[in-house]
Design brief:
This protein is α+β, with helices and mostly antiparallel strands. It is 30% helix and 25% strand. The radius of gyration is 30 Å and the shape is globular.
């Protein structure tokens, strides 16, 4: 799976001719100011290697110091060097001997298609390539002269001539602001020879890579602290306070702003971006609390928002409405509601929660309580999404509300066998400093049961086989699998290592059976799954594999070997007590052109002929239709990207609808980013409604385990658009999140829609026409259109205003109708 398919396609979507017309290219600062460029023609090293496909070529080894500036659309020209998401690039130039240095330049472009200007370009010098000294951030130094445009495509040269240093080696570490880094030329400006006699610039940096990690964490934390302080200032500006009362609070805002700019670097290792992250951020929120107290606000306010609406750490009630919880559920169904607690206390509050009056007694066993934590992100504001379980004390739940912050409480219900009907109780919120708030709660239990086995096949490239992949480790795998299974994941994924090829003789006969150890262990991890999906990896988004076990695709020996391979694995699956139809294969990831379609067809036709029950599943991203239909006829499941489905025209959608009518199964998957910017409701939950609307039976997300190879508690160190995982993972633990809860609720919504459809069909088959049948049919006909009205990729963003109550409203209407039809 290639998680940046959407972004990469957007990068090349802008017209190269139009962009080139708007910018002719950058020019040399050294030439413009008649200064010798010490880097011209000098060798350099690149760590990591450039990997942006539209400009990577062998010339990357010399193009950054060849004196040639890119003309035309920047990142599609061979004269440019580019990196896709990954570690910050380090470019180290060898000047040949120690030279006097007055400046450095970096030529770049940005402004469209997700390409942003770099966050920092940190310059180091070294006399020997071992001891490195930081001499400045080129973005800041260049900004004193000129800054790049704030919007629209443009080229720009970051440069300075204000340095006064020396060194044989010059290293630039590029800290990206977005997923990409591009450069076409670097210059080192010669300084006065007297610079060779100046002392070394301070203490050497022991580890520039660690220093860059610290810088990245510090900068992103500072950005969040500025947002926190801006909320305090906005609150203070709107507060109707006398000047003598407001003045000292304003002085504290000024002092805190200075502290943010002067804060020492944060150590990256072990850092957790959970608000409040540091004592400085705690002081910002304490000032927020002081402003609230000055206004005469209660120490604790209890209020409501919708569970999928975004929540800022400083958010306060918009209206003085008394909160009430309202939960509608059938038996064996996961549903939730939320409360918000806003503090004006000078110190953290410990709040005790107790639920009274519902079936099952005080704090009934089908109820779980989570405190929603605000966690910083790389490409967005802090998000209130993580759902660690609240601590228990004597049966009650304990929740911490940091001073000045708003803490959300997530109450999750999973009743198994309670009396149908409407039950009323209270959620008691108690703290010694504030007394008790009693919030009414209504739990309506319908005389219906959510099936234990869900119809929709849900998967997310979980890759738990072997030692695990991405964020899945031997230490957290059991918890990860348990979490996924509890949220209806029934189509787990394994890497190609689960199905090795075996060994064959010269004629193509299998002489040594594949090792089944990896596959068997993986199947044992997921007992009772509907389908076991394996990424066979015979091709990727950008390439295809031309051979199998040494035989070229399309040759007789290839056909014989593939037939023997799939026959072995289908028989092995049956030997495990499974059906061959429970084995699914992804052959080529995100196929988009004819060469890939032909490869899929070559494999799929052999599989169909040899073991027709085995599923061939393809996550298609067509750029061309040449050969598509023939490929589609050879596979069992076509799963277009939902973003493409929403963005492209009706002809695109009709192509897939025609394949579904011809017998192919349909699904949807999503893999866009930056993932933490996405709305749990619009991006995660509504995909399952899209599935039902289009008759799709599969849903997938990249990727349940992809934490961008960093702890989700410190996304600041992640690369690219990740983490993508809809939970919070670190090396040893898995913590729930609203994203995964939204997926789970969407799967249940799909099942409820199926229940309504099937009930209508059963009544019509029996010739019964109860009073509510017409209402039920009208409800089913319009349900998805009501919920999906206005759905677009723009609406993926969590900060995009939208009505997130519609799915709940429609679901409750369906539950009411199903209840009325239950006795007929």
């Amino acid at each position: 799976m290639r998680p940046l398919a959407i972004s990469a396609m957007l990068v090349v979507a802008v017209s190269a001719a139009t962009a080139a017309d708007r910018a002719g290219g950058n020019t040399s600062p050294a030439a413009a100011h008649h200064v010798e460029n010490l880097a011209r023609g000098r060798p350099y090293t690149l760590t990591p290697r450039p990997n942006y496909q539209h400009c990577t070529d062998p010339g990357d080894e010399t193009q950054l110091t060849d004196g040639v500036y890119t003309r035309g659309y920047f990142w599609t020209q061979e004269t440019t060097v580019g990196w896709r998401p990954g570690p910050p690039p380090f470019i180290s130039i060898d000047l040949g001997r120690e030279r006097p240095i007055r400046g450095v330049s970096w030529s770049a472009a940005a402004g469209v298609a997700g390409v942003q200007w770099p966050q920092a370009l940190v310059v180091y010098v070294s006399p020997d390539g071992k001891r490195w000294f930081e001499v400045g951030d080129l973005v800041q130094l260049s900004g004193r002269k000129a800054k790049p445009p704030a919007k629209d495509y443009a080229t720009h040269v970051y440069w300075t001539d204000a340095m006064k240093t020396r060194g044989r080696y010059v290293r630039i570490a590029a800290l990206p602001c977005g997923p990409y880094v591009f450069c076409d030329e670097i210059e080192v400006l010669k300084g006065d020879d007297s610079f060779l006699k100046i002392p070394e610039p301070g203490r050497p940096v022991a580890n520039p890579h660690a220093a860059m990690a610290s810088r990245q964490v510090t900068r992103l934390a500072q950005a969040q602290f500025r947002r926190d302080l801006a909320a305090v200032q906005e609150h203070l500006d709107s507060a109707n306070l006398p000047a003598p009362q407001k003045a000292p609070l304003s002085q504290q805002v000024t002092a805190l702003a200075a502290r943010i700019e002067q804060m020492p670097p944060l150590a990256a290792e072990g850092f957790r971006a959970v608000l409040p992250m540091t004592d400085l951020e705690r002081d910002i929120f304490r000032l927020q609390a002081a402003v609230r107290r000055a206004q005469g606000k209660p120490v604790l306010r209890v209020w409501k928002t919708h569970r999928w609406d975004p929540l800022t750490p400083s958010q306060r009630p918009a209206m003085a409405l008394e909160p009430a919880l309202d939960v509608h559920t059938m038996q064996n169904e996961r549903r939730a509601d939320v409360l918000n607690l806003t503090s004006a206390a000078a110190d953290d509050l410990t709040v005790r929660l107790r639920v009274e009056g519902l079936p099952g007694g005080t704090n009934p066993p089908y109820l779980a309580v989570h405190e929603v934590q605000h966690v910083g992100t790389r490409h967005f504001v802090a998000v209130a999404a993580a759902l660690p379980e609240a601590k228990r004390d004597g049966g009650d739940w304990l929740v911490t509300v940091p001073a000045g912050m708003t803490r959300q409480i997530w109450l999750r219900f999973l009743p198994k066998d309670i009396t149908p009907g409407t039950h009323e109780g209270t959620v008691d919120v108690r703290a010694p400093e504030v007394g008790t708030h009693r919030v009414p709660i209504r739990l309506k239990a319908y005389p219906l049961r959510m099936p234990a086995r869900k119809t929709l096949r849900l998967g997310g490239w979980s890759y738990t086989n072997g030692k695990g992949s991405y964020g899945v480790t031997p230490a957290n795998r059991d918890a990860f699998i348990a979490h996924m299974r509890a949220r209806h994941v029934n189509a787990p994924w394994a890497t190609s290592a689960a199905m090795p090829p075996g060994t064959y003789d010269a004629d193509g006969a299998m002489v040594e059976k594949p090792d089944t150890t990896n596959f068997d262990a993986w199947v044992r991890q997921w007992p009772g799954a509907d389908c076991y999906m394996v990424f066979a990896a015979v091709g990727s988004y950008s390439s295809v594999r031309a051979t199998f076990a040494g035989s070229k695709v399309g040759t007789p020996s290839f056909e014989k070997k593939v037939a023997a391979w799939i026959r072995f694995w289908a028989q092995h699956v049956r030997g495990l007590g499974l059906k061959a139809s429970q084995l699914g294969l992804l052959l080529v990831d995100e196929p988009n052109r004819q060469e890939q379609y032909e490869t899929i067809g070559a494999w799929a036709r052999i599989i169909q002929k040899t073991e027709p029950a085995v599923l061939v599943w393809e996550d298609t991203c067509p750029r061309t239709w040449d050969g598509f239909d023939e490929m589609a006829r050879s596979v069992d499941v076509l799963t277009p990207n939902r973003s493409h489905w929403l963005q492209r025209d009706e002809a695109f959608r009709n192509r897939f609808r025609a394949q579904r009518r011809a017998g192919r199964q349909l699904g949807f998957y999503s893999c866009a980013g930056p993932a933490r910017t996405f709305d749990p409701y619009a991006y995660y939950l509504l995909q399952q409604w899209q599935c039902f609307k289009e008759g799709a039976t599969w849903s997938g997300f990249w990727a349940f385990g992809d934490n961008a190879r960093q702890s989700c508690w410190n996304e600041y160190l992640a690369q690219g658009n990740g983490p993508y995982c809809p939970v919070y993972i670190d090396e040893t633990s898995v913590t729930g999140a609203k994203y995964m809860e939204a997926i789970a609720e969407g799967v249940q919504d799909y099942e409820i829609l199926l229940m309504l459809r099937d009930r209508i069909a059963a009544l019509e088959k029996a010739g019964k026409t109860p009073a509510d049948l017409a209402r039920a049919k009208a409800l089913l006909a319009g349900a998805c259109d009501r919920v999906l009205a206005g759905a677009s990729t723009r609406g993926y963003r969590w900060d995009e205003p939208k009505d997130r109550t519609v799915a709940d409203t429609v679901r409750v209407e369906i539950l009411e109708v199903l209840t009325s039809l239950a006795g007929d």
